[in-house]
């Protein structure tokens, strides 16, 4: 801020107050204790960092210091003729974190002198409650020594019904910069010119806080000069021609928890997990953390555990946080009410989108708009600061903003909420089904919204959070037939995304829906899917066996030999995981009989291949090799009626099994050849998790032959795939092997 000049004729407020405190023989701490004013506030006044303290603050200080009437008049004179509203506020108490953001602002302030043809402007953006004003207040305090011509702050009141007109804001700043009233022009353009003329000569910092939009902020941008201008806004203000933008996100979990504890009870010894949970309930948003922390501080009987219980109860989080006071809800309401009617409607309906982020298509479904118009509205909501732009041309809502949108939806559209939610759920499931059908053995029965399997996979990957959440909601709302149909379509896709942790829950939902439909065959199908996920994804082998046993019972009741065979195969997988290889072999032999009887074109080679794996596990590699080679011949027989994708994927997996057999027999050159074939097939059928494992196995075979020139490239790909599939153990195995080979070389 601009220091108050101190002259023999007119001493500064801070100098006068300091002199009276010293004369009274008091330290700042002693004075603070007597008058109830904080140490920081007194220190800021004495250092002339606060030029116009509140009158009641000045009065109590004078009363405690027993300042005579004539001296009180001098204090009034020291603060007279100073425009209010241009002093930066004190940084928030318990300001926490934001090191990177403060470093960015510091770098902007200290840019090289040769780069000062244009004053630096930084636009600080972010949603309501994320701490934009607190950040710039902290930065202004930290950077004050860098700006000898002062630090100035003007609240533009961007969320008011009538924000501060830019001409009025310029008038305030020009007065603070020392321009006499009579020399301040009347017109906006002339005031903007005068501001740039004065500012270009000053090494000063100006904060334009809470800008409404570009139209308000544009006249406030500086021209040339060594100064720094910070603009804060909930809107992105992307139409401004400025140097840089700084977008604030919620605090990291650790900093969020530390801030909450500091505000609430710095000496409290509550369970750290309780504090972390409470910070999470606050969405790691500084405003919510401050409101919640202050409640804990002001209400001694309120505990962290009790607040967490309230958060997990029926009350909405915003209600628990604000507790009837102005807080997050009020801040968001200010942004919401400034939107046009169509944007308010679109915003509140975003609460119906089940996942964390989304594209414009589902917004069009519930927004009474086509996709192009939905995208336009979303971009406008991004500009407003209520919606976040997510990489890859997507959008998202912070948790607390989503709850606010849901609150507005319930309050303003109670009659349509349920119908719109069901419409959107049905849309998600129908589109997911259309994408999943591209992975079924015969492909989609008719044209879908997706031109090919690659496009379908891309959509399923991008929208996983949405279709997974939609399945949960649809099952809860009784849409059991559509849940079963959708998961049926996803079954083959799951083989290419084994590493995802969603499948046990997906198949648990579909098995539950199938049971409610009362069809034992359908229930057997989905219990079999669930057994697969429990064994392969969760490695819960005993549970997998129990689920497959239930599937077998339902399949017997339905008289379906194919599903009986699959149930036996999945039970065998569980037994294999438990190390019960003899039991697994018996189940696979029975499965082969049942699937042959059912003439199941996909199941029969699966049964043969897994039977061979049991033989290998029992120490019979030569027999295993004969079974696996017979399986491969069946898969490569053009007369065997199996769909192309099922043929290719099962062939690749069978090649990998043949490699294991040859390795057990010590036939390493043949093993290398077939493992290369397996890697190629797994890559072509897009099974990244298994491809990563096959690459490591290939390198292990290459090392046996001594031909390891290509091994580093294989291992590098394996590490990348393992990282993508969140398999740290495999990535570590590949990395250790790469280090061994490098050391040997």
Automatic annotation (TrEMBL):
It comes from the Bacteria. SMART domains: HTH_XRE. Residues 17-71 form the HTH cro/C1-type domain. It holds the Pfam family HTH_31. This is Helix-turn-helix domain-containing protein. It comes from Micromonospora humida.
């Amino acid at each position: 801020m601009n220091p108050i000049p101190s002259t023999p004729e007119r001493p500064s407020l801070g100098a006068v107050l300091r002199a009276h405190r010293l004369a009274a023989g008091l330290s700042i701490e002693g004075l603070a204790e007597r008058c109830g004013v904080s140490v920081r506030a007194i220190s800021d006044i004495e250092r002339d960092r606060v030029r116009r303290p509140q009158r009641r603050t000045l009065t109590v200080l004078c009363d405690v210091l027993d300042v005579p009437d004539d001296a009180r008049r001098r204090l009034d004179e020291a603060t007279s003729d100073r425009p209010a509203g241009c002093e930066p506020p004190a940084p928030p108490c318990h300001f926490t974190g934001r090191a990177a953001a403060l470093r960015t602002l510091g770098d902007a302030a200290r840019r090289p002198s040769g780069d000062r043809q244009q004053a630096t402007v930084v636009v600080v953006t972010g949603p309501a409650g994320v701490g934009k004003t607190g950040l710039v207040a902290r930065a202004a305090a930290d950077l004050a020594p860098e700006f000898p011509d002062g630090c100035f702050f003007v609240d533009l009141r961007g969320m008011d019904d009538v924000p501060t007109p830019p001409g009025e804001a310029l008038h305030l700043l020009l007065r603070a910069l020392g321009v006499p009233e009579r020399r301040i022009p009347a017109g906006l353009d002339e005031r903007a010119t005068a501001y740039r003329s004065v500012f270009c000569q000053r090494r000063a910092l100006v904060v334009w806080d809470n800008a409404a939009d570009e139209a308000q902020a544009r006249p406030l941008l500086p021209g040339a000069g060594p100064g720094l201008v910070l603009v804060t806004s909930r809107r992105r203000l992307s139409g401004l021609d400025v140097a840089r933008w700084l977008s604030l996100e919620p605090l990291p979990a650790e900093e969020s928890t530390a801030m909450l504890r500091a505000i609430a009870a710095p000496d409290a010894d509550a369970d750290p997990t309780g504090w972390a949970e409470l910070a999470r309930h606050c969405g790691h948003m500084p405003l919510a953390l401050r409101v919640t922390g202050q409640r804990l501080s002001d209400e001694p009987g309120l505990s962290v555990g009790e607040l967490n219980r309230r958060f997990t109860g029926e009350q909405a989080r915003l209600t628990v946080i604000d507790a009837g006071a102005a807080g997050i809800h009020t801040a968001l309401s200010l942004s919401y009410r400034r939107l046009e009617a169509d944007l308010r409607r679109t915003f509140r309906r975003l609460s119906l989108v089940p996942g964390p982020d989304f594209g414009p298509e589902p917004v069009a479904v519930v927004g009474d708009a086509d996709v192009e118009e939905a995208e336009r509205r979303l971009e406008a909501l991004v500009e407003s600061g209520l919606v976040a732009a997510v990489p890859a041309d997507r959008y998202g809502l912070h948790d607390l903003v989503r709850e606010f949108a849901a609150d507005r939806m319930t309050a303003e559209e109670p009659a349509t909420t349920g119908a719109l939610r069901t419409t959107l759920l049905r849309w998600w499931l129908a589109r997911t089904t259309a994408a999943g059908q591209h992975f079924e053995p015969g492909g989609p029965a008719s044209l879908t919204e997706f031109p090919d399997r690659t496009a379908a996979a891309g959509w399923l990957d991008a929208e996983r959070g949405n279709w997974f959440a939609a399945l949960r909601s649809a099952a809860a709302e009784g849409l059991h037939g559509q849940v079963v149909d959708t998961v049926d379509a996803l079954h083959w896709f799951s083989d290419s995304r084994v590493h995802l942790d969603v499948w046990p829950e997906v198949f648990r939902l579909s098995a539950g829906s199938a049971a409610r439909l009362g069809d034992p065959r359908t229930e057997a199908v989905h219990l079999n899917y669930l057994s697969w996920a429990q064994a392969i994804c969760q490695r819960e082998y005993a549970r997998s066996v129990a689920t497959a046993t239930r599937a077998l019972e339902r399949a017997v009741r339905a008289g379906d030999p194919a599903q009986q065979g699959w149930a036996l195969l999945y039970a065998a997988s569980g037994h294999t995981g438990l190390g019960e290889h003899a039991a697994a072999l018996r189940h696979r032999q029975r499965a082969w009989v049942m699937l042959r009887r059912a003439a199941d074109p996909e199941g029969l080679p699966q049964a043969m291949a897994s039977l061979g794996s049991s033989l290998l596990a029992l120490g019979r590699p030569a027999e295993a090799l004969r079974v696996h080679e017979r399986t491969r011949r069946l898969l490569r027989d053009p007369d065997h009626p199996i769909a192309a994708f099922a043929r290719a994927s099962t062939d690749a997996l069978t090649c990998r099994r043949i490699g294991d057999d040859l390795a057990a027999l010590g036939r390493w050159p043949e093993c290398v050849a077939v493992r290369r074939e397996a890697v190629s097939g797994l890559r072509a059928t897009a099974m990244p998790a298994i491809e990563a494992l096959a690459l490591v196995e290939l390198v292990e075979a290459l090392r046996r032959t001594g031909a390891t020139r290509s091994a580093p490239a294989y291992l590098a790909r394996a590490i990348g795939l393992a990282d993508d599939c969140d398999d740290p153990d495999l990535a570590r195995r590949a990395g250790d092997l790469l280090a061994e080979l490098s050391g040997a070389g």
